[in-house]
């Protein structure tokens, strides 16, 4: 009977007694917290995400089959491509290539 009374009290109070024991969500470094209404990544969001991953020179941004392909280079001239889900903004892949030829002579 005491357990039932505690349950009724917790429900009547909106559940704060039970919610205190829940772990808080942990976000991975570099993750972006977006409001639920704007989960989809548009072109500007894809560019921002690529910049957060280290892209400083932007070469091309393409939307293909539900993913953004953002191509460019980082600050040392290494070519990079960031693949981002257009549905939710998750980074699916970051691919690094070789330094840009114009940077090799600098």
Descriptive terms for the model:
4 strands; Nuclear Transport Factor 2, Chain: A; 106 residues; single chain; 4-stranded antiparallel beta sheet; alpha+beta
Strand content: 25-35%
- Spatial extent as radius of gyration: 22 Å
Number of strands: 4
Determine the CATH topology of the domain at 38-106: Nuclear Transport Factor 2, Chain: A
Spans where pLDDT lies below 50 across 5 or more residues: 4-11, 15-27, 33-38
Give a written overview of the molecule.
By secondary structure, the chain is an alpha+beta fold. It has a domain at 38-106: Nuclear Transport Factor 2, Chain: A (Roll), CATH 3.10.450. Helices cover 27% and strands 33% of the residues. The chain has 4 helices and 4 strands; from the N terminus they run H-H-H-E-E-E-E-H. The protein has helices spanning 2-12, 16-19, 43-52, 101-104, and strands at 55-64, 67-74, 78-85, 91-99. A 4-stranded antiparallel sheet has the order 1-2-3-4. Strand 3 (78-85) and strand 4 (91-99) form a beta hairpin. Residues 4-11, 15-27 and 33-38 have low confidence and may be disordered.
């Amino acid at each position: 009977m005491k357990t039932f009374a505690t349950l009724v009290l917790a429900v009547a109070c909106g559940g704060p007694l039970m919610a205190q024991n829940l772990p808080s969500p942990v976000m991975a470094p570099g993750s972006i917290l977006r409001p639920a209404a704007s989960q989809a990544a548009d072109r500007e969001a894809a560019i921002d995400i690529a910049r957060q991953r280290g892209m400083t020179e932007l070469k091309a941004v393409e939307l293909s089959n539900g993913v953004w392909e953002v191509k460019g280079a980082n600050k040392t001239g290494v070519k990079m491509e960031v693949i981002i889900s257009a549905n939710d903004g998750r980074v699916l892949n970051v691919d690094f290539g070789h330094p840009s030829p114009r940077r090799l002579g600098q």
